[in-house]
Amino acid sequence: MSLSVVMRAWALGVLLLACLAQPGAAQSTTSASDEINPPPPDPYAHLREFLMGDERVREFPRAVDAPEFIPVSDAALYLEREAGVLVEEPVREGGPVFIYPRDILVRHEVLNLQDEGGARRSVTYSPLTGSVAGYMGALGARSFALGTTGQFLNMNRVLYDRATNSLWPQIMGECISGALRGQTLTRFPLLWTRWGLASKRWPQARVLSRHTGFRVQYDRDPYGSYRRDGTWYTTGEPTQPLSHKDARLAAKERVLGLRVGEAALAFSEAAVRRSGVASATAGLIPLAAILDPALDAVRVFHAEADGRALTFVRVGGTLLDEQTRSRWSVEGRALEGPLRGLALERVAAMDCMWFAWAAFHPGTLLWTGPGDPLEALPDGPADPGTSVLPTMMPSTAPEM
Description:
single chain, 4-stranded antiparallel beta sheet, disordered N terminus
């Protein structure tokens, strides 16, 4: 290379450096429009700070993807009368009833189902928060199944969808990270009861079989007996940091929680059992929690019929609405009176431990008894609450 070529290249380099050194010559990485319209804050950033566990782990424990169902008579050969079960009642009159033994769900935590038309849905259970939820496996035209991750948020299992690998805390049913962030899954109701009561009510039901494709001892709960006091399900405090703490109820007390728009409401299950019925309002939506004594279970409904809001009372063993004095069944159907033939809309309330519901829903209104006002937290910053990090938690991963 000639000396003249080298000198010309050197001169061009010096000129370029001089231009870059001048004010305004360098290109700004932030445009004026970005400064005027900054990106919106991430509403889930605070929650993600409390994620625990290994974000790389998937399918531990493994979900049940090919469930088999057996008649009630076959399941009765090994299920104890006091065994906990979840019941999926039919959407339409005369439809099939499905019974899911808790002893199976505690080992897998996710059960993926597909109906004859191809529609997907998932039954989910997170043992550490005692929370049960049914989710439809569709968002718009996208269909997917759910699986477990190795992460927990407020001690609640974080799920992922197999279509986009996005993260969904099981209690929220709302995506906090990934391509579907901000999206919410549609819930369907599940009823928590006991095998002896459910099998008597629905002798023709279809029961989830233990033939799941995994070698698992389904008669042994790694978290202790659900039917005895002094186990994880009834005693002790959360062992992971929580994004919010609320001492209005004992940590492990069971509630039925739901969101209506921006409002969150929780019914104390023990209080509903004592009174037989609870009426409350979340936002402008009237709600009713009704005990079914034959199942020792509580259903929640939108308490509105014929264009009017209803409040309910029990007179002896009779369920009445105060507005028309119509008589109602525990399934939410008017049997006698001016509203005869009408039915209340079922609400997919979340059955779970209080500490977990309150951690995800700091502004929850709490129903604790008839005649008592709904309790709300006083104004002020939420208590972030930190606790000791967990010791080794039992693995529920089934063997292949």
